[in-house]
Amino acid sequence: MSYKVIDLFAGVGGLSYGFAHDEEFEILAANEILKPMAQAYSMNHPSVKIYNKDIKDFSIDDLAKDLGVKKGDIDIVVGGPPCQAYSTVGKRSIDDPRGKLFQEYYRILTELNPKLFVFENVKGLLSMQGGDLIKNITSLFESVGYHMQMRLLNAADYGTPQIRERVILVGTLDSRPFRYPKPTHYDPECGISADKSLKPYVTLGEALGDLPSMKTGESANKYKCEPENDYQLLMRANAPDEIQEHEVPNNNEHLVEIMKALPDGGSPKDIPEELRPGSGFGNCYCRLWWNKPSTTITRNFGCPSSSRCIHPRDPRPLSTREAARLQGFPDDYVFCGKRSDKHLQIGNAVPTFLSNAIKDSVKSYLKGEEIGGLTTEFVAEPTLF
């Protein structure tokens, strides 16, 4: 018997990736409003019934009609309502209608009454309305009988070559404490870990080193070399012979000169003054580091003037495939639509390694296994390990 899962605000399937690749779980249905995202989800998860519609128009009635689902049939609901209203990158507005979509999540919980749910969002959720918003959200879920627990998790702690912090709320009908996944990796810049089972963070170079170099406006479809490490082996396990989506947009000559002048991990302050751009925030026009994890990938990773996204060695931003790799999507994972659609699909996703770690904790909880892990901790800053 498999645990039945419903995926809300599904995107291309990052949050549900771990559940989709474990035979003890079955994702019955997913809801996603954007057509290119829904198409990509369907191509990567063909057995899942995808509902490409506004979540306000999605309900248990759809599931009952198409799949025979009744209240209480679903074991797990996962989902991350759109996070733009909560993000610390860009404008934040409590009046943004996307910030109210947790109420639709709540509505579907009342209709399905799953044993457990996973609610994912950005770190900025913790500070909205002076911290009152997260309290209101948890209180709403508690009002229908769920025991709420929360932690701020960093995807790099679970093998993702990217620093990406996410709030993970877990609600359970059972009052037993939910144990969050114990980290598998540590930041070597903080010193040597006392836990010898932990591995150092996966670096950008380790994740991308087998992909060929490119110049602005170029594309490439041949791997540079055979896989050089376990991460690359995993990314290429089921990949086609040719690389898909390894391409970058064309940039003007002055921007290319700026990027050429940047050192590894550098910013405009590290280049000659006559080359420096006349505007931009402190993290714009910045190179990534080859021997560190990437900073958080956003939907604008193809734009050099956006948050740090310039390749550490080539004078160009990240390619579509490189960003997908930094999110943990293997090279056979498909994205749909225009380049901007694909970048949105990648930039908005939950890293697959984090999904897999959460899935393992959910499985242990539902099986009643008492394994080592992290108990709840309501924190506004990440716990250091």
TrEMBL record:
EC number: 2.1.1.37
Membrane-crossing residue ranges in chain numbering: none
InterPro entries: C5-Methyltransferase (IPR050390), C5_DNA_meth_AS (IPR018117), C5_MeTfrase (IPR001525), SAM-dependent_MTases_sf (IPR029063)
Keywords: Methyltransferase, Restriction system, S-adenosyl-L-methionine, Transferase
Source taxon at top rank: Bacteria
Active site positions: 83
Record carries keyword RNA-binding: no
A single GO BP: negative regulation of gene expression via chromosomal CpG island methylation
GO MF assignments: DNA (cytosine-5-)-methyltransferase activity; DNA binding
Catalysed reactions listed for this entry: a 2'-deoxycytidine in DNA + S-adenosyl-L-methionine = a 5-methyl-2'-deoxycytidine in DNA + S-adenosyl-L-homocysteine + H(+)
DNA damage keyword on record: no
Family: Belongs to the class I-like SAM-binding methyltransferase superfamily. C5-methyltransferase family.
Name of the molecule in the record: Cytosine-specific methyltransferase
Source organism of this protein record: Candidatus Cryptobacteroides faecigallinarum
